[in-house]
Amino acid sequence: MTRAGLRHSKALTITGAAAAAAALLLVTGCSGGGGGAASGDAGGDVTIEFAQWWEPELPDGQFQGLIDSFEKENPGITVKLVSGPYASTEEQLFAGAASGTMPDVVGLDGAWVSDFASQGVIANLTDLMKDAGYDDSQLASQIAVDGSTYMIPVVNFVYPMFTNDDLLAKAGVSAPPSTRTEFADAAKKIKALGGDVSGWVLPLSLEAPNGVQNDVMSWVWASGGTMLDDGKPDLTNDDVTSAADYIQGLWNDGVIAPGSFTMKEQDKVEEFTNGRVGMMIDSLAHINLIRESNPDLKFSISAIPAEDGYTGERGIPYASWGIGVAENSEHKDAAFKLVQYLMSKDVNSELSTMAKAFPGNTESTPDFSDSDPLFKTAFDIYKAGVPANEFTGLPTAEDLMRQLGEQLQSDLGGQQSMDDALKKAQTSWLAAF
Length: 433
Prior knowledge:
Helix content is about 40%, strand content about 15%.
């Protein structure tokens, strides 16, 4: 499939392992919608809960402002935001899935969808859209399981490389590295500055294992590689082996920040924000947090370095702020009205602008005029590459990350070789397929 084809796909169907193709769903434009003012279920006043990690990653008050506007347009519906960091939201939702107590509306990561759908804990959005008479042609993409939609990507983020400009300059590195050799050289020079400064940060927490997706496999995708073969696990191929060996080399050189085995995504961002690491792979969503937490920090973003000599399109890791409705919700109509509102043309444009993300509505357009200049840089990186996230829609995707993370920890900890780590992970992954 061409980059244009990937970018403009209207619906992505996830059926078992072949669902990895659904990872490539970002769009450059984005489309129409309708918030639709209406009262609560059956005309009565209702309160719905919306659990997500979005509000803390946006400037103070902005997301609540959108919710306030929704409530004004929909008298009778009150929205209670349940906000927390990504890892905390994930833990809450999986606990709620087990106990049947999910909030009415849920922020979703594409890696969770297959599990939640198979458990029957998130509602069939295809049915809700049909019941509401909703025109889904405005949606840039949908995440489906067995032909039915369970998640709608609201906004989409690329995961470029962030570099601390001051640390690079002090280390004598004139520009962000573009190849693996340049990256390793820059990491060594930053580490040589001394103190508590490290070249790169690698979160490998097993509690929140998305570092395997964002910080490990991103090296594979950046050079056009894959971890799958015909939709099935292929962790011992040359693409994955090369990236894993490269990370092993960075570890052996001592340029990776300490604490990797317990570090989560928010810890990684904190290390970078506080100036303790020179480089990290991270979501555009965290630009706001970094700016607010350390206004004096000078940093840049660039494409993730590729293998030396690679000239093809670079895979760009991405993640979505997806949205779904809980199956246990007693107010599905009201919950879906909130989904409609967030996907409407003007609101989705506003949300993507404040989040520094790409819209989920094909008619929405982020406003570049007052945006952080890095947003435009990210858009250029995105247009020059191809979105890549092979974990989206895989069965037990979180568990797959954790299984590989366990083996990587064992290797980096000196208990086994990288070859053995990848072979063991390959065996455990096959069992899930």
